[in-house]
Amino acid sequence: MLKIKKPFTDEIIEIAPHDIQTKMNWNDGILACKELGDGWRLPDKEEFELIYNELYNEGLGNFRPEIYWTCEELFDKGAANFHFDKGKSYGILKTVEYNIRPVRTLSNPVSVIMEKVILQRNMDDGYGTVYCVQKQEFEINNIHKYFEIEEKFDSVESVVNYLQERYEQDDYQFIDDIKCNLDDSEDADHYNSIFNPNGAGNNVDRLVLIYNGKVLFETV
User: How far apart are CA 215 and CA 218, in angstroms?
Assistant: First the structure.
């Protein structure tokens, strides 16, 4: 059995041993995988990157050095593909015909409903020491409400990607609103009692996302 493990969620992904025989456009590829039943689908870009690094580069999986469709729709008429000859993904019109390799999720050890992340705000006290001054735990299926968006997140990775995109778009107001509205931490009172507004530091004010003890996102 060909399989990979996703690093953020520990999901085990099974990869079909061969491509579907006929190259297809994106819509037909989506449908062909679905018609196989049992959860078969097109891989996403992250899964193709793992496949490329862990299988293709090791000569495993019977992949051609050609282009494959991912499941990721980029806009109404376009979607992302994956080039095994280059190890990169690009966007293109859905009407182009590419190789199709089905995958499916075998196991998700932790239910997304129970997955939790911590958002915290770190600030220095003006003397060079950094404190966690605000901190709050969120379940993945509810954190979209805190962000004031309608669409739910389906994984920790999707939350990280969302924050990274907003940060790279220089959406500082969004980032400030997120960190400033968090609950006070246990160290907040102590921090406020020693904070020196005219100190040599005062240059650390960061939003941090932590999952299972690991920092997955942090502003600079």
Answer: 7
